[in-house]
Predict the structure.
Amino acid sequence: MAKQKETPSKRITTAEVRMYRMGTGDCFIIKFFAGTDNTFTMMIDCGTWQNDKEHLTEFITDLKTYVNKTIDVLIVTHEHKDHVYGFEVCSDLFLNDFTVKNIWMGWTENDNPGSSGGPLGDQVNEWKKKFGQHKMALSIAAQQLTTIFSGEDQLKQAQSELNGVAALSIRQGFADVVNQFAELHLSATDNDDAINYAGGLKGMNIVKKNLAKNNITYFQPGQIIENIEHAEGIRFYVLGPPTSIDAIKTESGPEGETYSHSHNSEGADNDAFATAVLNLGVPQPPASLFPFDKNYELNTAGTAPTAIEAIYEKDAWRRIDHEWLNSAGSLALRMNSATNNLSLALAIEFVDSGRVMLFPGDAEYGSWDSWHKINWSVKGKDGTTPLTTAELLNRTVFYKVAHHLSHNGSAKKRGVELMNHPDLAAMATLDYGKISKGWKNTMPNHDLIQALLTRTKGRLMIMQEEGLFVDQAARQTPLHDKIIETRGQMNSTDKADFISSYKENRLYLQFTVKA
Amino acid sequence: MNTLTPSQSKKPPFRKLRGYSFDPALSLKIDTAPISTIVYKVRWEDIGDHEGCLKPGPVGEYVEVIDYDPTVKKFYTPVNLNDPYILAQDGLDPSESNPQFHQQMVYAVAMTTIQNFERALGRKVLWAPQRLAQVTGKRTPYEEYIAKLRIYPHALRDANAYYSPQKKSLLFGYFSSAPADETIQMPASLVFTCLSHDIIAHETTHAILDGMHRHYNEPTNPDVLAFHEAFSDIVALFQHFTFPEVLLSQIRKTRGDLTSENLLGQLAQQFGSAIGSYGSLRDALGEIDEETKKWKPKVPKASEYRTVMEPHARGSILVAAVFEAFTNIYKDRVSDLMRIASNGTGILAQGELPPDLVNRLASEAAKAADHVLQMCIRALDYCPPVDITFGDYLRAIITADSDLVADDSHNYRLVFIDAFRRRGIYPKGIKTLSVESLQFVAEPVLGPDAQNALNVIGEFLRGYRNEIMYEQDRKKIYEITKKHIASYTNMTKTGLHGQILEKLDNSFEFEQLTGLILDQDWKKLGVNPSGASSDDPSFQIQNLRLVSRVGPDGDQVNQIIFSLVQRSGVRMNDDGTFAGHYTPGVGEVPANGFEFRGGCTMIFDLEKAQLKYAITKPLLNTDKLAFQIREIDTGRVEQQYGYQNNDTMMGISDYSHYFGIGASDALNEPFAFLHSH
């Protein structure tokens, strides 16, 4: 830092957390202060669900000024559009006149893990390859769905059926949501050469290939990062991504463990589906594509249709040419959860006080659950028993709400219910004006909002409160009113503290956490 | 290929077809391998080229198996079950790698399921007709007859299989497995849902149920979809007891105790383990303990009925109740045998049971299972046409059984009530829980005018009976029934619809009885004018049918049953209270507006030509109706709206959340998303 003063102690005393209001998605700056000196600056993610360059430029310009064009550590939690899109559209702003000293990512982001393949051995390379293929399959299936359901044939057929047009519009809506999921994983512009999928969203590639100068460090759960220059008295605990593929695949827990119990099974995989999609229109598909021996196929090339074919051709309304593509829906959900669980999840501790700031990315239940299985190599606050993850959660005073207040982003018993520190505050990156269509149905989760409001005494800071209700289905009490009401019930000390720590304007919300 | 010429000898009653008793998983384990395949006896469908013969596919009278795989755009050669070589060896060998066997398997199980229904119902199974789009200004038929249910054995690449009410088809998927226990299921091997008896029987039952009650796929309360699932599971489960080899082996294994872990109470073994569970997909008796990975019996909890909302999980409460009723009936039936075999101590000697005892126990189990299944199927005729709850179903079971079996010597009815009670399932609006109070009110007392009108209708229905009684052709049955329902035939008011409008349109008592509106005020209550005459309110008659059954003591039941269904457009306030009406189909649906349905199942006793039961889900508020005030049943309206707009209550999956597939979207494959794994 340029303007460091020689003071006897440079231990960090406060952290200023700034959330940019670019639209549903994460972009955070954390400035650490020793007294009044900003000695260390972190940036976590830069993404939003949708927005053009023109709109985002204003935010990024402000960000650059705010950090004095220098970031000590940049963290990219996971490869989803709402966490990396900013790097794509505003790449010129990041690549010019901007310094990133270090980049931190989860161990799964390492594209050249060496022969060992990281904690999971070769298994992970295999899995990542498959994962890439599934992303491609999702993208192709999404395109197919759109093409089919917007086609003339479908409309004509729909018009001839009772409620056909209404049913078609439901299917078109379904195709839209699948497409948005595909977009979350794969840049739209990459779709043309999806077959040559090289790995990832453009934003992520820009960070890895252009922004990074051989300075990316990949972390595994259980690692503790300390003694960082200019961040005295700060310790980073790496919680996730988990090192078990099962944990990565797990989106929700047993009943009572997440804020809504979901019925999606993690067990089934979509390999057979992905194989079929990837071979659509391939002239000489591999034998592994086919479930049965060639001899069983009805060979009617050049002959008149057989009786069975005639039956199938006869009634268009009973045909099933495209129904199978709907499996793209379950594929999309699985991809989504798995990628969320790949989030680099960090607990940032002020060592002297033991107060913790939790930045979990978008981790879902499988990741939260795995945190509790970590054997920490340091002692807990009492100095005798080993540290537990539960203790870190107990000491959490700032929580970046995972996955935009969705039901599966925050674990219940193993997460939020352990956050019982009286000073707890939370920030959530949800903006109903800029959000994927499908997400509106799961965010915000009513029970999670209630729990956070109670636990934070109203120190719940949401990117954009407009359009949100306490219960989204009932649409009765606006969430804003409820938050104000809850804040009104704080005692005078808490109230004064909150007012002095909190800052809000058009571009960002900001909250100061005491060490 | 038809080299066999029909000969002088008698036609065989059955076609024997080999198939998996459960699914291919059993054939890999040494203890279950001997019972992994069985011979299905399917009613004979003739050889020949004329209509009604079994063609390659198989394409028969009830089903057509079309083996088109859209994921690779290929047809697989259809199996010809009349091929002499195939005929001579009871069908093709069970095989996972031969798609022709897959076709044979779905045909055999679907037909077996249909036969079980026809036997219990005493009439032919008809599929739900295809509703047709109405062209404005043209009088187009309302619906079209569907002769054959279509079955696609390889339609999807997903751990999913479903009945499509739109396509009148069953779609089966296949997928690569991801088992939790790799010693049982090979990882990444292909699993075919069309090879599972349970899945085929379950989906076929969905289709049959849709043919009987078309509104049961509209989730108007938490029980409706759960009922569809539960009922389909019940049929699949009790079909296990019709396989003698399987039954004997399981009686032997459990030493006659059917409440311990056994295959009979489990559904879809292979599917369950292939999607990463440790056991079957569902189990009516027990569950795998998450900690120990060991099977343990499930203890009924009254709270579950209040809290569990996801349709399959909620459905399994009903399945468990019915299965418990069965095991208690079985225990009662074999208590004497057990006493004899244990010299009165009730404690059987160690070691294997003697074969004679196993045979006797098996025959009692088969009998009890058959009775329970018949009770469950027969009860469908006594259910309201819309908005069913488990409590309604219990009442239907009790009433249907009381009608047919006067002397309940084995206390079947009490056993059922007890099993439901233990799970907190109580019907609404009854004051005590007993066999008498659970029965629907028989032969409601009516004033002379209404009684006369109903007598005329009773006479009319006798005419219908005479015409249909000996008709075996399903299409003719459909057409005769249609003709009797329709308001007009050649411009004369002949049909039941016309009869009701003419004879009962001023009957206040009839409105009280059915909870539907026929008289004045209907325009104000969001009811459409009838297509037949714009001066009358619209209502539908569904599922007119003749029911003749003979009970075990020779008691005869001869009834005509039909359902009346009426809809009203309702609007709600933002706070979920009732706001007012709109007329469905006229202009846009207003904000917070939906179509609310009421309905009534009318059961006529043919001997007396008299109304026996009117089982109703009223459209009107029946309390107010007593004071001659016609008002919508706002209680039911608000309950339905509250339910359909509450995610937790709906218990719907993430899938539905993200893709916005909610209650109103019955248009878009209601069962596909329910079944997705």
Chain B touches chain A through 82 residues (CB under 8 Å). Chain B has 21 helices and 22 strands. The first strand of chain B starts at residue 14 and ends at 20.
